[in-house]
Amino acid sequence: MTAATHSSSFPAAADSADAVLLGLDPEQREVATTLRGPVCVLAGAGTGKTRAITHRIAYGVRSGQLMPASVLAVTFTNRAAGEMRGRLRGLGAEGVQARTFHSAALRQLQYFWPKAVGGDVPRLLERKIQFVAEAGARCRIRLDRGELRDVTGEIEWAKVTQTVPADYPAAALKAGREAPRDMAEIAQIYGTYEQLKRDRGAIDFEDVLLLTVGILQDRHDIAEQIRAQYQHFVVDEYQDVSPLQQRLLDLWLGERDSLCVVGDASQTIYSFTGATPDHLLNFRNRYPQATVVKLVRDYRSTPQVVHLANGLLNQAKGRAAEHRLELVSQREPGPAPVYAEYPDEPAEAEGVAARIRDLIAAGVPAGEIAVLYRINAQSEVYEQALADAGVPYQLRGAERFFERQEVQKAILALRGAARSGGNDPLLDDVVELGSQVRAVLSSTGWSTEPPAGSGAVRDQWESLAALVRLAEDFARARPGASLADLTIELEERKAAQHAPTVQGVTLASLHAAKGLEWDSVFLVGLTDGMMPITYAKTDDQIEEERRLLYVGVTRARLHLTLSWALSRAPGGRTSRRPSRFLNGLRPGSAAPGTGPGGAAERAAARKRGRRGPALCRVCGKTLTEAGEMKLMRCEDCPSDMDEGLYERLRVWRSDRSKEQGLPPYCVFTDKTLMAIAEAGPSEAGELAMISGVGVRKLERYGADVLAICAGQEPGVEDPDDA
């Protein structure tokens, strides 16, 4: 579902080429009028990049410099492609192809397969996870639900980085992948998965790109035919291009350079799928003559929101940070961002729901409010809190709008009414399109007033109400349009998954919120361990987490609330701390590196060449207690301990202590077990680095502990140990 925006879904068509340029700022106008040669548009959040590139295409078409059929615009989601097509139609640039990489490649693959290979195109797998599960079973490797999803993700990553099964372990190690299973096992499953597909004549979405690349590489006649068709390329969200997508783009281009790319390295948040900003950052090296335009005028967010977003990036490190854009808000001042601390997660959810209820009472539409979190598992407590508060909500990433039963039924009714024309009794004495739609949908459950409360009935009404609003927008933009015209529009939107807005508070992960915007945004659960997420270990992974929070902040137009809870459940130990990314930004917090354990002091200690005090790896404070020094963190700082592993280690320790007639702490102390469960060592050297694991205990217990850490059963005890 798309978030509501303040611009119409159906902008009025421009009546000339010059009219296309009206309303563009100087930088957007430069993008729109630079139609030749390579162009790189560095566009910050909310700066109107889609407006700039669609007006560029439309200006080229309306001025006669570009033939519509010769232009291919590619982006990353069906929703974004559908929105681009809608804008181009409104600007009078019909006939331009706007597609995702996958849909453009699939179209070409289906057309050229008989000529290049012969026969029918293999069956396309909608969901590869079932094949991965079967591949695991054939390899005698049992995968639970979480591992199955993660192994599938590893296979997808390998394919978009053009890594074959035999090379996966080395490539994954080099890339610093956090593999869910032994890398050799994943390579085995990957190879079996590929064989299964071949045996059954099936391909997956990554194969669509791989096969298209293969055909274009091997068949120069087909490559030239495509290049004769498409002579001008526009790539949106270029920071998210994978190596495989870049290879396909290179083959489309050939030796030409009629390419316009748009992106923002500070919004690179999909590296786990193989996306890399390197192609964007290296664009000027590849095309020294390229025109580079920076869009920094932020039309979306208030100066207060923009100030916070800029502050987040000012603390960033790495190559992407070196190319960050300093946004300049073009809006009137608004309220300052709100920082809220709660004792526990239910209290945080209740506080957010109460604030949302107040905003709705003050006139903010529910569809203009979003609650964004790091992982989908966080949604449940907010679903309950909003339901208890009587606030309608929608889960982004749940059932697709056009797949809902009530929507399908409504479209069927509209299509029937359009065919019957004046013979439908529902349309007697009804002329205006919006009134016709309301009359037809009244027979499928829509009413002028929403039903009381929440739940399924309210959800169904919200879906129908979204169709009514869409029809009203369509009628205003297309005076004289008929029901038949509307049904054609709905079919095109269904094909592109370009859904209308449903008027409920959006609950979504930060990744799912990319590309959307709302008047009011609540960023919740902002504690160390969740933002950044626990498994973000390397500097690059930490910086991607910071960019993810930046994306969340820049979704807000006016109201922004950032909150966290000190414990998970009521009455729990309040050991959590606010996200380190907020240090120096939220009131009363010190900037990173300025405290007693800051990075600057640690760097100075290293430079002096002497061992400094033991410092907490979470907050940087000096450690003095033996137990804290063993854990290398303060007792109160959040732990990233694997609790399941800790419990398995405790059971094992109990068994060993009974076998040997020793107190449990003589095997390992609780603190040492906690340190092991936090570190999750995979080999003897890593285990030996943990305080409390000496040479003698490593020899006696090391094999058992490493086996438990690897999810295996510990070996049988050596009789000599007893």
Task: Describe this protein with a few key phrases.
globular, disordered N terminus, 722 residues, alpha/beta
Describe the protein.
The protein has 722 residues and is α/β, with parallel strands linked by helices. It is built from 30 helices and 16 strands. It has a 6-stranded parallel beta sheet with strand order 3-2-6-7-1-8, with helices on both faces. Strand 6, helix 12 and strand 7 form a beta-alpha-beta unit. The longest helix has 22 residues, at 456-477. The protein is globular, with a radius of gyration of 28 Å. The termini are far apart.
Structural class call reads alpha/beta
Number of strands: 16
Gyration radius (Cα, Å) is: 28 Å
**Unreliable runs, pLDDT <50, ≥5 residues?**
1-8, 595-613, 716-722
Largest sheet: 6 strands, parallel
What spatial form do the alpha-carbon principal axes imply? globular
Please state the average pLDDT score: 84
Separation, N- and C-terminal Cα atoms: 64 Å
- The main sheet orders its strands as 3-2-6-7-1-8
- % residues in beta strands: 5-15%
| Percent of residues in helices | 40-55%
| Tally of contiguous helical segments | 30
